Amino acid sequence: MIVPLHAAEATDAAYPRPAQIAPAEWSARVQLAAAYRIFDRLGWSELIYNHISLRVPGEPEHFLLNPFGLHYAEVCASNLVKVDVRGNVVGPSPWPINPAAFSFHGAIHQTLPEAHCVMHVHTAATMAVCCLDEGLSFTNFYAAQLHGKVAYHDFEGITVHVEEGQRILASAAGKPVLLLRNHGPVSIGFSLANAFSLMWLLNRACEVQVASQALGRLRPIPVPVLEACVRDALNFNPKFGAGQDAFDAMQRLVDRADPSYRA
Q: How far is CA 154 from the centre of its chain?
């Protein structure tokens, strides 16, 4: 059942915006906190590690990030950390950030004005595919929708060195999905919902690939069909919110389970 408008308004009233935070930033904080809870619900959390960053509306040099030390299930709108593209914490926060988050998230946000959200996970299926020589195989329904959208970056170790951020950015070469070889995936979205749609598609594609590779040789999909899949995918169709409708549905599930992320 879709949450009625008056119920959503009641939820918002229960978790009012702090006076010192602008309305647009607070809205972004709530949406990003919801994303962390959605990731946890999907089993995409990684203890206290990995990251989703979101640009602050109207502040192109600032973005929001999870506090380093909290599990995704503990992230909420008020404890997200606001940082600049150089990794400096903006405003008061009792929490630090993960240095690995800044090393490439900052470079992406600083260089690509359209990169409003950057996501990085370590799910078993996506990491498995990142460890394959051939990487992602465009041989299933989900992967087909990502044809032409995937790039690769060779493994350099733990991503804590700022200078690697520029090399990661160069490897992405304008593609919205980047597979860090021997490591894990990154999605770069023009909105949080867009980045989520890309990551969801990628994770499903990798799950199917890992399962089907165990059965034998993968059946190829002709390039014209792959191109048609990208063109016809509802995940990127503005009529269906370019992924926003799907994200909203997941947020409603989180709201029914535990709306405390709004605090």
A: 20
* pTM score: 0.92
How far apart CA 73 and CA 7 sit, in angstroms, is 23
Report in angstroms the alpha-carbon separations of 124 from 5, 184, 211, 217, 237: 37, 9, 12, 21, 29
- Which uninterrupted H or E stretch holds 161? none
Q: Is 162 exposed, middle or buried (0-12, 13-18, 19+ CB in 10 A)?
A: middle
Q: What confidence tens digit (pLDDT) does each residue in 143-153 have?
A: 999 999 999 99
Question: Which domain, by its residues, includes 43?
Answer: 5-262
Give the pLDDT confidence of 137-178 residue by residue, as tens digits.
Answer: 999 999 999 999 999 999 998 877 777 888 998 899 999 999
Strand order in the sheet with 51-56: 81-84, 59-65, 51-56, 117-120, 184-189, 177-180, 150-153
- What type of residue is 67? P
Count of structural domains, the chain: 1
Contact present, 209 and 218 (Cβ < 8 Å): yes
For residue 87, the tally of other CB atoms under 10 A from its CB is 16
Determine the Cα–Cα distance for residues 253 and 40; give it in Å rounded to an integer: 12
Task: Read off the CATH number of the domain in which 151 is found.
Answer: 3.40.225.10
Contacts of 34 (CB under 8 A, 6+ apart): 250, 251, 254, 261, 262
Distance CA 146, CA 127 (A): 17
- Cα distance between residue 226 and residue 60, in whole Å: 35
